[in-house]
């Protein structure tokens, strides 16, 4: 599933900036990585909840993401933990 172009550009820019920051300010890069992990976890839970509420099956999610049904099911179940 392709990402919207603007999001793909932002992710590339973020990765480049974080990589550059590692050499100059490793603690800042580590802090930023932690912030991104928390953002990703929150968005993942919210998105899984929307997908689950829409009734999309684990099989459909697996196909769309190119993963296994088991991994897709874990993603969907994370919505219940949020």
Shape: elongated
The oligomerization state is single chain
- The Cα radius of gyration reads 16 Å
Count of beta strands: 0
Instruction: Kindly estimate the percentage of residues that lie in beta strands according to DSSP.
Output: under 5%
- Uncertain segments of ≥5 residues (pLDDT<50)? none
Helix content: over 70%
Order of helices and strands: HHHH
Distance N terminus to C terminus?
25 Å
Structural class: mainly alpha
Structure description:
The chain has 82 residues and is mainly α. It has one domain (5-81). 84% of the residues lie in helices and 0% in strands. It is elongated. The relative contact order is 0.10.
Features:
82 residues, mainly alpha, 4 helices, 84% helix
Which helices and strands appear, and what pairs or packs with what?
Elements: H1 5-24, H2 26-53, H3 58-65, H4 69-81
Helix pairs in contact: 1-2, 2-4, 3-4
Q: How is this structure best summarized?
A:
The protein has 82 residues and is mainly alpha-helical.
């Amino acid at each position: 599933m392709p990402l919207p172009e603007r999001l793909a550009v932002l992710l590339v820019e973020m990765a480049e900036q974080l990589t550059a920051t590692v050499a100059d300010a490793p603690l800042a890069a580590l802090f930023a990585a932690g912030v991104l992990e928390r953002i990703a976890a929150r968005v993942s839970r919210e998105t899984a909840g929307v997908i689950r509420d829409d009734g999309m099956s684990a099989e459909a999610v697996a196909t769309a993401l190119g993963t296994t049904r088991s991994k897709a099911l874990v993603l969907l179940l994370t919505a219940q933990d949020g």
